[in-house]
Amino acid sequence: MANTIGFGQAAVNNTIDYGQGAIDNTINWGKSQTLSPSGETNITGTGGTPPFSNTKSILLDGVDDYVDCGDNDNLSFGNGTTDSPFSISTWVKMTDATRFRIVFKADNTTGNNEYGFFCDASDRINFILYDSKLSVSRGRYYNVGLISYQGQWINLVATYDGQGGTNAQNGIKIYLNGTQVDNVDVSTGTYTAMQNGGAPLEIGKFLTNFSSGLIDETAIFNAELSQSDVTAIYGGGNPSSLSSYSSLVSWWRCGDGDTAPILTDNKGSNDGTMTNFTTFSTDVPT
Prior knowledge:
The protein is an all-beta fold. It has one helix spanning 227-234, and strands spanning 5-8, 16-19, 28-29, 57-61, 66-68, 86-94, 101-106, 113-119, 125-130, 137-142, 154-160, 172-176, 179-180, 184-188, 201-203, 205-206, 209-210, 212-221, 248-252, 262-263, 272-275, 280-281.
């Protein structure tokens, strides 16, 4: 710049300065800095969201271990008259496929249910909706044995379109590792809609039946997930973040970011409580 003598920062317009340069024919010594420095602009900020990393899961002993996520109306998808769409996604590694209870919303005393996602005694994967009349249900199952999947991580997704009535069973889909597999309808009585009772949502348990194996990255959505959603969630066998799904209601990471005995709900307020166990496993789907 012309006609300038500067000590420290160069001056502007015929200025002699010591410290920061002044403006318009003034002499300054140590004027307070007013210019924004270049380079780092977030020195003390909180930083961005850390990248997704899956390093932990929950290990259930098949005897009495389970997770209690409580009862909240946003985990109920019927009112006895009409149903709403919803979906469940989880990763499991079964030790015993003949009694693996994934997610149940059921009363622990009477067994009165809203819905259940589970493996039965014939090692078939079921997704069942229970009518407010209690003895009536709609559902589908995968009529192929799951014992061959014991000891390996698999992704299971159940979806429901919320149509209710006689259409309910046709609105149910079950996916195994990204592929739709439901092939048998299950129905009893004349179904209208799920009840909305006081049943807690439990992971790994129904009444006195407890899961044996590992569970990870379990989530509830208030929409029917599409095939493309399910494919993305499976990700070729590698879990990824679910935070981008606008329909996500609750998401339990099952260890990552959790402090036992609480499994944090990473979307809503339905934190889970680890019951009869407090440790995490480092065995995860990869």
